[in-house]
Amino acid sequence: MSDRCPKCSARISPLYMKETCPKCNVNLLYYGFEDRLEQDARQAEREVAAVEHFVNILKSSSISKPILIARLALFFTPLASMCLPMYDGVSLVSLIMGIIKGSGVVVMPLISMALVVVLSLAVIISSLFSSTKRGLARNVILSAINTVVFVALGLVIGKMGVGWYITLVIYLVELVLHFVCDKAIKKQIKENRE
Known about the structure:
Low-confidence stretches: none
Order of helices and strands: HHHHHHH
Helix content: 55-70%
Structural class: mainly alpha
Radius of gyration: 29 Å
Number of helices: 7
Shape: elongated
Strand content: under 5%
Largest sheet: none
């Protein structure tokens, strides 16, 4: 409790135990309570609006149109293509089995596949915010980095297998889909404004 009355500013002893001010008789606990409740209600409305805005961004960026759902599903297909031979018969499955059995693990294919997973996750997360101001640029840059790193590692490692080529095609399709999805998102935003 404060050492002054909130209404008349009279000094109140720290040992004063009554609910009301000795000078103006206002209830010390509930004075201004309605104002504090209104402030709390306004703050809660702002927080709910912020959460709704965030959810709307996620929806409009990922599941509001069939093409966006297709792009989202495509992001997870490199995991399947890595199960095919990527480098000289080495696949994600053979790497995992090598780790489990404790046999020798080929380092460069492991690094390549780990980067595929990490950079693909970055692209997925970025795509969830495609409807934001710089969404397309961010998506294209991250997808391009992902593709360039993947191709560079493929050229360094060599002996690319069918899984590598399928993954490359997936990445190229992702790049194209970013532009197609951006048009769909902009069209949807325009429709929502009208």
